[in-house]
Description:
The protein is mainly alpha-helical. The chain is built from 7 helices and no strands. Helix 3 runs antiparallel to helix 4, helix 5 runs parallel beside helix 7 and helix 6 (87-100) packs antiparallel against helix 7 (106-119).
Amino acid sequence: xxxxxxxxxxxxxxxxxxxxxxxxxxxxxxxxxxxxxxxxxxxxxxxxxxxxxxxxxxxxxxxxxxxxxxxxxxxxxxxxxxxxxxxxxxxxxxxxxxxxxxxxxxxxxxxxxxxxxxxxxx
Length: 122
């Protein structure tokens, strides 16, 4: 079996906010491709959306252990830190993205906006 089929279905479930179904497909993808940072990242995202912050943190860190420059995981980890009221740690993720995104990138822009919203109390 191909892990990308489960990954694609998981993404489709994410888009419709069906987090448990997304998680199930991502876990199946992970069985086939255990060190796939995109899958690890989206497992973190699913758990964050469910409010399982510790579980989410674990998945993001696993994604970054496989690929320390994974821009999506850096952005989402920064957003998680904001949700956990740890803005200094979010700032560290933004700094890493700043170095990776020399000419700018969506992940940097999104985390920068999330930090701005956080500081504004939104």
